[in-house]
Amino acid sequence: MEHEKYETYYVPEQSPWPIIGAIGLFLMALGSGLWLQQRDLSMPQNGYIVLLLGCLFIFFMMFGWFRHVIQESMQGLYSKQMDRSFRQGMGWFIFSEVMFFTAFFGALFYIRMFAVPWLSGAGNNAMTHAVLWPEFEAIWPLVITPDGSATKPMPWQGLPLINTVLLLVSSVTLHFAHVGLEQNKRNQTAVYLMLTLILGGLFLSFQWQEYMHAYHELDLTLDAGVYGNTFFLLTGFHGMHVTLGSLILFVLLIRVLCGHFTPAKHFAFQAGSWYWHFVDVVWLCLFMFVYVL
């Protein structure tokens, strides 16, 4: 009888997936760096190969790890304490993502509020202005680079505004999918989840079109000074998170169609919803501070 007071806690066997994921992330970082450095066509163009290999490692890791966790869950190996552990883990993961984007937004804030005024001679930095860049004017976005080349800022109207509407609507459709699951209405869940995936795919498609427009018509590239750097870093990393979120929602859709969730037990669906809503909130901040203000 004493043993009935305690819950069992499933401890899985040693797994190869964390080290495979670490190798994939290393290859992605290495490949990205090499790709950016190998823009000279006279150099061997192998950076994108390393980047692609890293992506393949990550997708292989996610497929295998997802499969193992799903199998363990369907076998009834998880207790209530395990569920609490999953919730804490997802909460800390999203917190780490908040800190990730906070660092980039902090860099943008520092550039606009401190570095740009200082470079124009504000405060006690008249000598800095005279020596480094006498013609510099404290405006944002910076459309003139130190080498004298010019670019154009990305307006908030058009594709950025359309993408904002798409992500806001996707949060609504995902909410209705969650409500359908809680009410055991699987058709509603599947339909709204598919709509969410379609909206996410449209967002990524329009962002790609926006990048092509920036490169070919606005001369807005990674070489376009600090404005181009911050623009592509923030929007690019957000696009990567939308891609990851779409992959998670796709897995959830397959599980819904397979009948894996119940109204009382569906934390995997909740975790995917948390992540997607987080990505939407980040985009709203990004839209305001990168495009509008």
Explain how this protein is built:
- With 293 residues, the chain is an all-alpha fold.
- The chain has two domains: 78 residues, Helix Hairpins; 210 residues, Four Helix Bundle (Hemerythrin (Met), subunit A), CATH 1.20.120.80.
- Helices cover 72% and strands 0% of the residues.
- The chain contains eight helices and no strands.
- Helix 1 runs antiparallel to helix 2 and helix 5 packs antiparallel against helix 8.
Keywords:
293 residues; mainly alpha; Helix Hairpins; Four Helix Bundle (Hemerythrin (Met), subunit A); 2 domains; 8 helices
Residue stretches low in confidence (pLDDT < 50, at least 5 long) are: none
CATH superfamily of the largest domain: Cytochrome c oxidase, subunit III, four-helix bundle
Counted by DSSP, the helix tally is: 8
What is the architecture of the largest domain at the second tier of CATH? Up-down Bundle
CATH topology descriptor of the largest domain: Four Helix Bundle (Hemerythrin (Met), subunit A)
Helical proportion? Answer: over 70%
Mean residue pLDDT: 85
Q: In whole angstroms, how far apart are the ends? A: 64 Å
Return Rg in Å.
23 Å
CATH class term of the largest domain = Mainly Alpha
Strand segment count: 0
Question: What is the domain total for the residues?
Answer: 2
Shape: elongated
Largest sheet: none
What letter string, H or E per element, gives the SSE order? HHHHHHHH
